[in-house]
Amino acid sequence: MRQIQMVDLQTQYQNIKSEVKEEIDKVLDSSMYINGPVVKEFQANLEKYLGVKHVIPCANGTDALQIAIMALDLKPGDEIITSDFTFAATVEVVKLLQLEAVLVDVEKDSYNISLEAIKKAITPKTKAIIPVHIFGQCANMDAIMDLAKEYNLYVIEDTAQAIGADYHSKDGSIKKAGTIGHIGTTSFFPSKNLGGYGDGGAIFTNDDEYAATMRSIVNHGMGKRYYYDRVGVNSRLDSLQAAVLKVKLNYLDNYIAARQKAAAYYDNFFADMDGVQTPARDSFSSHVFHQYTLIIDGLDQFGLQEELNSKGIPAMIYYPLPLHTQKAYDAEKYNDADFEVTNYLCKNVISLPMHTELDEEQLQFICESVKTFLQK
Ligand SMILES: *Cc1c(COP(=O)(O)O)cnc(C)c1O
């Protein structure tokens, strides 16, 4: 059996090696390492794939969030509501920009931001909501956009884990994750569903004005060359990463299908096992399985993780601690009782290996190993 990885980028690379090398060689031969033509090509291909008017490449997914928030022109102390059950990047940038991050609880089944919790958290200072499409499935965007309209709020979708997911809107249209809110952001970190061989990120919008503002922000706030209209940052996707991503974008739908196939195997195996909850699917979203995460009631998470590791199976706890308990994010301002679901999830979830190269032999071994532990 091939060695099991949490994300098997090695095997994936072997399968696309010649194409990737060819594109990388083109960049090396051109010596246009920054803003080479391949960056524009990848940008155009991604715009087409997502069906969005503007893609603005940048240096990573955290920058993408920061730049999106900077484009909204908010005032210090303005509030942004986001999910308690996510990677820290989402709240970090809010705080960095002197804005107030307001963490709220998530839905039990989807682990996505809770609508009820958003409603309760809205104040006159609330200016934006950042739903995170966690683990690869979209939050309830129709309902979030309705709320945003009612309260005049911006919506930035954090699509770092869900690029390529389809959102089925109540008007019958199908849109790609990240193209529904005012702005969408993503990450091309190597382990993400569309990952480069280094850091990278992008911002999406259908709005010409936000797009122009964000293009200026990523380039030091420049409008016309050497005329600075605003304070910006330096955030670029380099040509080598764009070359890799251009090749991998052509495979994204196949990669998603491979993840879904592995997820179906897990689903099937764990379907009838007592106390084990497989990932729920919302009718309005496809699931692109950035992670395959089980909820196991009363689980000894670290015990299971250790036993799997001892058999050569990696497994991760995403996320072991709720963000509302973290010192950096104003833990003292929250009431722990408002985070019932996140608190529960952090204690009872485990993410199994999930990537594009899992074969049946590996899947079976992983499943049987989890079962053995649970039946002890
Ligand atoms: C990975 C990730 C980010 C940050 O992306 P980087 O490219 O690592 O900066 C932001 N939000 C979520 C939900 C992520 O999973």
Protein architecture, described:
With 376 residues, the protein is an alpha/beta fold. The protein has 2 domains: 9-249, Type I PLP-dependent aspartate aminotransferase-like (Major domain) (Aspartate Aminotransferase, domain 2); 252-374, Aspartate Aminotransferase, domain 1. The chain is 39% helix and 14% strand. It has helices at 9-30, 37-50, 61-70, 89-96, 115-121, 141-151, 208-218, 239-249, 252-270, 301-310, 340-348, 360-374, and strands spanning 54-58, 79-83, 100-104, 126-130, 154-158, 166-168, 174-176, 183-187, 201-205, 276-277, 292-296, 349-352. It has a 7-stranded mixed beta sheet, with helices on both faces. α6 links the parallel β4 (126-130) and β5 (154-158). α1 (9-30) packs across α8. The radius of gyration is 21 Å and the shape is globular. The protein starts with 8 loop residues before the first helix and ends with a helix. The relative contact order is 0.17. The model has no long low-confidence stretch (mean pLDDT 97). The structure holds pyridoxal-5'-phosphate. Pyridoxal-5'-phosphate is lined by residues 60-62, 86-87, 89-90, 132, 158, 160-161, 187, 189, 199, 201.
Task: Write a concise keyword list for the protein shown above.
376 residues; alpha/beta; Aspartate Aminotransferase, domain 2; Aspartate Aminotransferase, domain 1; seven-stranded mixed β-sheet; three-stranded antiparallel β-sheet; 12 helices; 12 strands; globular; binds pyridoxal-5'-phosphate
Brief account:
The chain is α/β, with parallel strands linked by helices and 376 residues long.
